[in-house]
Amino acid sequence: MEIITERLTLRPIKYKDVANLHKILSQQSTRRFNDYEQGITNTELRAWIQWDIEQYIQQKGIRLAIINDDKQFIGTIGIQFTSRFDAFMVSFELDENYRGYRYMQEALSALQIYSKEIEWLRCKNWKAKIHIENIAAINTVIKCGFRTYFHRSNKCYLVYKF
């Protein structure tokens, strides 16, 4: 399964992506806005990818590698069901060298369109938990039709609903 856009190919994450994904997740600008500020090991990352694969098999989510038109791994985007929010939560990370070019907006829009073709993803309850200072991510989800749903100031997160 692949989703192809004008500039990107989105494909399921694989174990071979560990090194490239680790590089992105180790970037200070990525760690600052994610749940793993202290970093993540390759072993933890392999377990995370295994979990993503299992979620896809169980029809509870999907994580896709984002490959640009130069065949470079530049990030991931995923959607996973979370019972805590009773919703599918969107998450993404993009290599800092590729930010500002609307790649993530293109990837999220493509995932939204693709989800209409998959019954278990075809839902109206998508959310994205975003750090309040991550203006680029906030702008990305707003441009893709999300709106502010919940603000939790003590954790500095906004939740957007599509």
UniProtKB/TrEMBL annotation:
Q: Which InterPro entries match?
A: Acyl_CoA_acyltransferase, GNAT_dom, N-acetyltransferase
Q: Name one GO molecular function term.
A: acyltransferase activity, transferring groups other than amino-acyl groups
Identify the Pfam families for this entry: Acetyltransf_3
- Ranges for domain N-acetyltransferase come to 8-162
Question: Which PANTHER family does the record match to this protein?
Answer: GNAT FAMILY, PUTATIVE (AFU_ORTHOLOGUE AFUA_3G00765)-RELATED-RELATED
> What name has this protein been given in UniProt?
GNAT family N-acetyltransferase
